[in-house]
Design goal:
The chain is α/β, with parallel strands linked by helices. Helix content is 39%, strand content 17%. The structure holds 5'-deoxyadenosine and iron/sulfur cluster.
Length: 403
């Protein structure tokens, strides 16, 4: 009988896609997938390290499923094989086994192609050591990979029926001072444009019509052009995808203001299949904090970009990310963030309380905004954004009822 795999995903869309990749590879290797954790012989956590809170959730979930006496029909009398993969795996490496002794394997983002082989090895070891009354568990960790083989993106497995995420670049080389991503996902590596187009063509043949192109900073995309070998940037990639027959809608996340130009907005306005949706994280409205974050733009440059977007992409949606309580953020800095939210009128804003991350430059700056003050600032922006979103919704409903 096939062994069942239960895959639980924490974190961003990149992780959602990585989980699909792992699911596709496991299916290809002869495993079955299940949504019922208690039926699974193998439980895998795709994890996130972006904030402490995201990690805490995973540690507590592992504790829950590892409780002695917990029933898991899929693993028979023994506990399921447990894997911790993704960003936390890279952040903690083999130290995971000290903190969570029930974990059997730890695999970082650049090594996910190895997961089926690792699971098979552990299952084999279990069956052999059971016969020999073995006392020792086999623990495997893979966190030294430099890149992913292209084939992992071509198993054809997508969770949704009509929509697929397509990774265009892996990793990140921006080194925003608060962010752990460059350390856990490595430097930026762009997929070849022809490979991305091939993946999309195959997905279209399988009935998928809507696509979201994924990267930590899609606007820094570079690759040789499939037609003439000249360099293609993100706008030219969009143009290529826009031409693919059968593709009906194209979205993309995330855009970094440092690499975003009005040329992208012109392309969004011109290419009929591209969604008029831009996620453009501002993070802070204070130049002093933006500099300390190493964001590479000023408040004025961001505001100008937002204005250009609104002017060129008529009716376009604009969303953002904000961090409150970054080290050294004074009340004046915070007020500048509040004002940028009030003045830009985002359609949605995702607001985060600063969380110090290991090895980052900001970690060395201390964490001097008290928790209660971070919570207060978080609530101020949240309430403000809620009021803006509500007003926008009402305005839209009114304009529709006047039609
Ligand atoms: N603390 C709080 N929020 C963070 N983000 C990234 N790193 C941190 C951190 N250390 C937020 C940023 C980013 C989003 C995905 O998560 O706003 O855009
Ligand atoms: Fe995604 Fe960043 Fe979390 Fe990794 S750390 S899962 S890249 S949000």
């Amino acid at each position: 009988m096939k062994k069942h795999v239960y895959l639980r995903t924490f974190g961003c869309q990149m992780n959602v896609r990585d989980s699909e990749v792992v699911a596709g590879l496991m299916k290809k290797a002869g495993f079955a997938l299940t949504d019922d954790e208690t039926k699974a012989g193998i439980v895998i956590f795709m994890t996130c390290s972006v904030r402490q809170h995201a990690e805490d959730k995973v540690w507590s979930e592992i504790g829950r499923i590892s409780k002695p006496g917990r029933k898991n029909r899929g693993a028979g009398s023994v506990r399921p094989v447990i894997g911790l993969i993704g960003c936390m795996a890279q952040n903690y490496r083999e130290r995971v086994f000290e903190r969570a002794p029930s974990v059997d394997f730890v695999v970082g983002p650049a090594d996910i192609d190895k997961i089926p082989g690792i699971v098979k090895k552990i299952l084999e070891h279990r069956s052999v050591s059971k016969q020999a009354c073995g006392l020792f568990d086999l623990k495997i960790w893979e966190t030294d990979g430099l890149g992913r083989p292209e084939h992992i993106y071509h198993t054809g497995f997508y969770e949704e029926k009509g929509h697929a995420y397509a990774v265009i670049s892996e990793g990140c080389s921006n080194f925003c001072t608060y962010c752990i991503v460059p350390y856990v996902r490595g430097p930026v590596r762009h997929r070849n444009a022809q490979d991305i187009i091939d993946e999309i063509n195959k997905a279209v043949a399988g009935g998928i019509t809507r696509f979201t192109l994924l990267g930590q900073n899609v606007n820094s995309y570079r690759s040789p052009d499939p037609l003439n070998g000249k360099p293609v940037d993100f706008v030219s990639l969009l143009k290529h995808v826009n031409r693919i027959e059968g593709v009906e809608e194209i979205g993309f996340i995330t855009s970094h203001p440092r690499d975003t130009t009005p040329r992208l907005f012109e392309a969004m306005a011109e290419f009929d299949k591209v969604r008029k949706y831009l996620h453009l994280p501002v993070q802070s409205g204070s130049d002093r904090i933006l500099r300390a974050m190493n964001r590479g733009y000023t408040r004025q440059e961001y505001l100008k970009l937002a204005r250009e977007y609104r002017r060129i992409v008529k009716g376009g949606i604009l969303t953002t990310d904000i961090i409150v309580g970054f080290p050294g953020e004074t009340k004046e800095d915070f007020c500048l963030t509040r004002d940028i939210v009030r003045d830009t009128e985002f359609d949605a804003a995702y607001i985060f309380k600063y969380s110090p991350r290991p090895n980052t430059q900001a970690e060395m700056m201390g964490d001097d905004v008290p928790r209660s003050e971070k919570e207060r600032r978080h609530k101020v922006i949240l309430d403000l954004q809620r009021a803006i979103s509500r007003a926008k919704k009402e305005a839209l409903l009114n304009s529709e009822s006047n039609l």
